[in-house]
Amino acid sequence: MDQCLNPQHHLAAIGNISDDDICLACASIGLSTKPKHDVDFYTHRLAELSDAVHAYYISFAGGDPSTDSLGRATQHDIIKKLAAIRAVVFDQYKFHAERSINEPTAKTDFCDMLERRKGTPINLAILCIHLARSQGWAAEGVAIPGHFVCRLEANGERIIFDPFNRAKALNASDLRALVKQSLGQQAELKYRHYSAIENRSILLKLQNNIQQQQKQRKDFRAALAAVITMQQIAPEEPRFLYDAGLLYARANQAKTAITVLSRYIKQSKSRYRKNSANRVLRLLMQHR
């Protein structure tokens, strides 16, 4: 049932395809910098998980999860769909949360998560979204501030769940608590907090987490590599030129930093970042 076939080819084309055509898990495998196995190991792991969700779901939902014997769409309970994902990912395969997510030693790589079965909120979310979509179910990330949750939708029903907390279903009170935890006790749950996150934005969040972690470690070359992949994901976004220029400078590649920052200044509409880029550019020129 799984459609994750060639991560490197998918990643190479990602800047030129529509958001709906992006396979999150496939791209995340392609973005991995330190896989311990060949690509087939990870795509087979995803296929194995996908087949397990399919088998678990039909075992107690009854029949084929897509159509009945007459080819009509079935009306299975969305709670059973979520239960199938939870049972396979967290009970059968023992995936669990990476609790040290704010530490420099935390593992943020998707392939590493598939190996260790231990992941950050966004990696676990990508896995759950992929498994749902591989069944033909509608699933997406949701823009709750400070956390990453998912929404599953079927037959007019919706359910929001937290992959970092064993796919626990979240009600409005739970979501309100997450908003207050992130934005302060005066903050309230708003309609915009229910907005779906585009696939491209999810991948950018994943890579930004890696960039920030590598900067904490002062590994500026590794941080730069993450930013370069962000440019690949969203080639029309000029701010990644800014980030890359600063990291080239910190990685002692002044000539490239000057070239990249100069390109950014020509393209940018952000006065703040443009002024910052000009300051760095002047310093680099002075020390040539």
Q: Output mean pLDDT.
A: 89
Oligomer: single chain
Give the N-terminus to C-terminus distance in angstroms. Answer: 56 Å
Number of domains: 2
Low-confidence stretches: none
Main β sheet profile: 5 strands, antiparallel
State the helicity in percent bands.
Answer: 55-70%
Cα-based radius of gyration, to the nearest Å: 21 Å
The number of helices is 12
Proportion of beta-strand residues: 5-15%
SSE pattern: HHHHEHEHEEEEHEHHHHH
Indicate the structural class: alpha+beta
| Extended strand count | 7
**Strand order of the main beta sheet, please?**
6-5-4-3-7
Query: Based on CA inertia axes, which overall geometry fits?
Result: globular
Features:
288 residues; alpha+beta; 2 domains; 5-stranded antiparallel beta sheet; two-stranded parallel ribbon; 9% strand; globular
Please summarize what this structure is.
With 288 residues, the protein is an alpha+beta fold.
